Amino acid sequence: MVRIFKTIDGQIHKIAEPVEGSWIVLTHPSQEELATISDRFDIDMDDLKSALDEEERSRIQVEENYTLIILDIPVTEEQQGKEVFNTIPFGIIITDDLIFTVCLVDTPVLTVFMDGRVRSFSTQKKTRFLYQMLYRNAEMFLQFLRIIDKKSGEIEKKLHISQRNQELIEMLELEKSLVYITTSLRGNEMVLEKLMRNTSIPRYEDDEELLEDVIIENKQAIEMGKIYSDILSGTMDAFASVISNNLNIVMKFLSVITIVLTVPTIVTSAFGMNVGGIPLSTHPWGFWIICGISLIFTFLAGIIIGKNKYFK
User: Fold this and answer.
1) Which residue has the higher pLDDT, 206 or 25?
2) Residues with Cβ < 8 Å from 225, sequence gap 6 or more?
3) Which of 190, 101, 60, 87 is closest to 144 using CA atoms?
4) What is the pLDDT of residues 40-73, one digit of tens each?
5) pLDDT in tens, 82-108
6) Which residue(s) pair with 74 in the sheet?
7) How many other C-beta atoms are found inside a 10 Å radius of the C-beta of residue 260?
8) Burial letters for 64-95: b for 16+ Cβ neighbours within 10 Å, e otherwise?
9) How far apart are alpha carbons 93 and 95 in whole angstroms?
10) For every residue of the chain, which 3-state class applies, written as one string?
11) What's the pLDDT at 276?
12) How far apart are CA 34 and CA 26, in angstroms?
């Protein structure tokens, strides 16, 4: 899908044909749409497709008539009825007259611009627009990190009650999402550092502070991701230890029961042998005496085990 926008009299408008100062949005474009854009604006087809490759790394690439910027953006996916956090590439191509964005999904990073909800936004001011998109992307990462932290807190409360495998699997999924997000943020940081030194994109003094804010937000997101990842990893280790300790307690209890019940089993087995001369075999109270002996030995075994420090 290809959409074209331009700021007219301070308001964003959707237009039919690209003109100077407009913004062309490519969302999951078809092969024909990519070919048309490539031929009409002299943009390499591979550069257009790079943002559609989920394994593409973040980078800046300067060509003769345009500059390509590949970043990672946060997205949510539905897997087995559950919301999973991930990242995908997002491409920005800046030419002398136009700015292009290429992505597999209709990301919230761009929808706020399409809806006109961003102040001081103009498609003609390509450098500021670029920095505003980068800032919005950093904010989205921070928002996703807060959601992940909230979800991990909810799962932790469930673990205090149930300690099922399901909660541990959910914690593992969140930890995996944090790894993806943190890795993407570090890749974006390298792009921002290169952008500071890049001369192919015009830089204006009024926009320098915005770029610095983007770098600060990205660094903050990296720190938050690392902190949340460490907390989540520590929580999983702690609960794994708790579950292992509970298992040891259960096994110890079963071992005690087994040892205690072994004593009357030995006594009754000895008196139950089918041989002549067994004591009390002809006594009228023999059965009850043997039961009494078994109870006495069982009681003594329980006292001995109870005083043993290894079984406490």
Assistant:
1) 25
2) 141, 145, 178, 181, 182, 185
3) 87
4) 888 888 888 888 888 888 888 888 888 888 998 8
5) 778 888 888 988 888 888 989 888 888
6) 87
7) 17
8) eebbbbbbbbbbeeeeeeeeebbbbbbbbbbb
9) 7
10) CEEEEEEECCEEEEECCCCCCCEEEEECCCHHHHHHHHHHHCCCHHHHHHCCCCCCCCEEEECCCCEEEEEEEEEEEEECCEEEEEEEEEEEEECCCCEEEEECCCCHHHHHHHCCCCCCCCCCCHHHHHHHHHHHHHHHHHHHHHHHHHHHHHHHHHHHHCCCHHHHHHHHHHHHHHHHHHHHHHHHHHHHHHHHHCCCCCCCHHHHHHHHHHHHHHHHHHHHHHHHHHHHHHHHHHHHHHHHHHHHHHHHHHHHHHHHHHHHHHHHHHHCCCCCCCCCCCCCCHHHHHHHHHHHHHHHHHHHHHHCHHHC
11) 60
12) 9
- Identify the residue whose tokens are 């009409």: 40
What would the two tokens of residue 126 be? 């390509």
Predicted pLDDT of residue 13: 83
pTM of the model: 0.74
Rounded distance, CA 148 to CA 218, Å? 17
Residue with tokens 């921002």: 192
In residues, how long is the chain? 312
CA distance 243 to 163: 7
Which tokens sit at 20? 């100077």
At a CB cut-off of 8 Å and minimum separation 6, what does 14 contact? 3, 4, 5
Does the pLDDT value for residue 312 go beyond 60? no
Could you tell me the two tokens for 45? 């087809």
